[in-house]
């Protein structure tokens, strides 16, 4: 019987340089985050060490081989793992979002809700021969996305990016961004993108859709209309029912 492992954000040594600081400074950001394509607002940054990636992959494979019930990561990927099903939302993804990603995103994407991230959907996608090999062009149900390559050894599978999906000829001049194991690629959710076919090997990537209810409550990023909400569990799709902005008090006091 395999011993269960407890994960914590402290297991992510690359991030601990930034975690714990009240706010990453522009100087620290410049040292850590590299623009991959500044005009498209795509950035690359180191996220996980190689040993952390290997340990996480082992855990993911163990879960994949188990007979635990599993959902699909999203409507386009057939193979992978939902992080909350593995019990990694609370100890790993939520602290990553709150303590590390939100301060970065507030500086890089203040106009896309970067400073107001309050929920996420996190999943690992797997590409392998005989399984999913590529991903068609799409945009994410997210204000912002981070996509981290975990391994294993692979060729191909680069991401390509066009413009925002609402723009005419958004895919006229796509830009390719290669994966580097341990590194994350940051982009706006509404930016058209996809993944080129896998060449050889197996590719596993952690994708976190970052959501800001302050943005999506006003305009659904998928249908571009005022959201019409139905109840759901957990984070749902990241919408909230806003409270009235006024408060009451008693005139007699
Ligand atoms: Fe995507």
From TrEMBL:
InterPro entries documented for this protein: Oxoglu/Fe-dep_dioxygenase_dom, Pro_4_hyd_alph
Residue ranges constituting the Fe2OG dioxygenase domain according to the UniProt record: 118-212
Q: Which domain of life is it from?
A: Eukaryota
> What's a Pfam family this protein contains?
OGFOD2-like
Q: Which GO terms describe its molecular function?
A: dioxygenase activity; iron ion binding; L-ascorbic acid binding; oxidoreductase activity, acting on paired donors, with incorporation or reduction of molecular oxygen
Respond yes or no to whether keyword DNA damage is given for this record.
Answer: no
PROSITE patterns recorded: FE2OG_OXY (PS51471)
- SMART domains per the record? P4Hc
Cofactor entry = L-ascorbate
Which UniProt keywords are listed? Dioxygenase, Iron, Metal-binding, Oxidoreductase, Vitamin C
Its name, as the record gives it, is 2-oxoglutarate and iron-dependent oxygenase domain-containing protein 2 isoform X3
Q: Which organism is it from?
A: Pteropus vampyrus (Large flying fox)
Taxonomy of origin reads: Eukaryota, Metazoa, Chordata, Craniata, Vertebrata
């Amino acid at each position: 019987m395999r011993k269960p492992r407890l994960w914590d954000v402290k297991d992510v040594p690359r991030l601990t340089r930034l975690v714990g600081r009240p706010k990453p400074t522009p100087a620290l950001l410049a040292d850590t985050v590299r623009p991959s394509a500044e005009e498209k607002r795509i950035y690359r940054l180191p996220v996980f060490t190689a040993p952390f990636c290997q340990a996480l992959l082992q855990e993911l494979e163990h879960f994949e081989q188990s007979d635990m019930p599993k959902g699909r990561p999203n409507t386009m990927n057939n193979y992978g793992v939902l992080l909350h099903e593995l019990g990694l939302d609370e100890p790993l993804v939520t602290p990553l979002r709150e303590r590390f990603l939100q301060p970065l995103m507030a500086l890089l994407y203040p106009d896309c809700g970067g400073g107001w991230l309050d929920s996420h959907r996190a999943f690992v996608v797997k590409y392998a021969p005989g399984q999913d090999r590529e991903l068609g062009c799409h945009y994410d149900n997210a204000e912002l996305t981070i996509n981290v390559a975990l391994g294993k050894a692979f060729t191909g599978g680069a991401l390509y990016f066009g413009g925002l999906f609402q723009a005419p000829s958004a895919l006229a001049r796509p830009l390719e961004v290669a994966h580097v194991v341990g590194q994350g690629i940051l982009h706006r959710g509404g930016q058209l993108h996809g993944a080129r076919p896998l060449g050889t090997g197996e590719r596993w990537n952690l994708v976190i859709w970052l959501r800001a209810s302050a943005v999506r409550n006003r305009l659904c990023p998928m249908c571009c209309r005022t959201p019409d909400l139905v109840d759901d569990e957990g984070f749902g799709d990241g919408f909230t029912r806003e409270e009235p902005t006024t408060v009451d008090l008693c005139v007699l006091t």
